[in-house]
Amino acid sequence: MTFFKELARSKVGMAGFVILVLFVAVAVLAPWLGLEDPTRGSLRARMVPPDWWGPHPLGTDEVGRDILSRIVYGSRITLMVAGAAVVAGGIVGTFLGILAGYAGGITDRILMRLVDIQLAIPLMMLALLVVAALGPSMVNVVAVLALTSWIRYARIIRGQVLSLREREFVQSARAIGASGWRIMLRHILPNVLTPALVVATLELARIIVMDAALSFLGLGVQPPNPSWGRMLADGRTYISTAWWAVTFPGVAIMLTVLGVNLFGDWLRDYFDPKTRSAR
Prior knowledge:
Low-confidence stretches: none
CATH topology: MetI-like fold
Number of helices: 12
Shape: elongated
Largest sheet: none
Distance between the termini: 19 Å
Helix content: over 70%
């Protein structure tokens, strides 16, 4: 309960948390909200402007599909892809960060050189090359987004482990004959989950933007499945005559990323002892 009490004291953190929970709730409850089929269009209803109390509150797109429905169902795909990429990248990056920090030596040097090499390549260019080579699909998008995120976990977790491996409880476990894998899994891993969680929260915002960018370029989740980036790409041609076709998907992306960043910043401060003592 202390967590939520501290969160309630921060207006910025609470605002981010509320935005994030709202989008997650809408994504989960989408099939029960009574919305139109996001893939079904009607040429007679194309380019209908927003009618807040009518059948199309946010208007329709160039083929008559309801924009509100597509935004809501698009949130399911966006959050699913981003969440899966964050989890996959977090697991790989945390494991390699612990391994590099605890093992040291040649293992540490090899893994950190891999990190340096990947950091030298623009992440968006790497994502475009991999998706273009493997083909656009949800699985491939998740894989490439995870590939661009594991390095952040690895570098931060490695720094934590370099300090932890010299602590008394690790030295005691080593002295009684515990194996290296047991020490990493039972003693070090629980102590690096907090920084990994903070990194995951901040990475979520970046991955949402990258997913939208890939979809905008036609390399993300393919039609007829709705995605926010694809909605921006489809509506940009009509931006002067149907502003709502690009405005509302853009606002959805902006609010989601804003919510994640605000909550992530608060979460980082909450788990930082120096920041908490200063407050």
